[in-house]
Amino acid sequence: MVLSLDDVRRIARLARLEVTEAEAEAVRRDLNGILGLVGELQAADTAGVEPMSHARDLTLRLRADEVTETDRHEAFQALAPQVEADLYLVPRIVE
To answer: Are the beta carbons of 19 and 27 closer than 8 angstroms?
Structure first.
């Protein structure tokens, strides 16, 4: 895909960017370069490559899923202005 100056002006207008004519040509050149790189990446053969969640093969240090705090919801709700069925009641702000 190759962008024209009209495409760059339209993109700039949609992005609410002010681009002069001199800048538009430079932006067009840069965007076309980026799109060219994307085209090269899309042409790469990725068959058999498993998706990764991170570029490095890392193992997260996980802790045991154990309760470490005592249940204090009754104490906290005793301080709340309004509670109903163990839920905090708050004023409605959206009509």
So the answer is: yes
Amino acid letter, residue 35: L
Q: How far is CA 68 from CA 3, 63, 65, 77, in A?
A: 58, 12, 9, 20
For residue 16, what are the domain limits? Answer: 5-43
| CATH assignment at residue 35 | 1.10.20
pLDDT tens-place string over residues 64-91: 999 999 999 999 999 999 999 999 999 8
pTM over 0.70: no
**Domain assignment of residue 29, yes or no:** yes
Q: How far apart are the first and last CA of the chain?
A: 47
Domain count, the chain: 1
CA 50 – CA 72 distance, rounded (Å): 45
Which residue shows structure tokens 């969640």? 53
DSSP string, 54-78: SSS------------S---HHHHHH
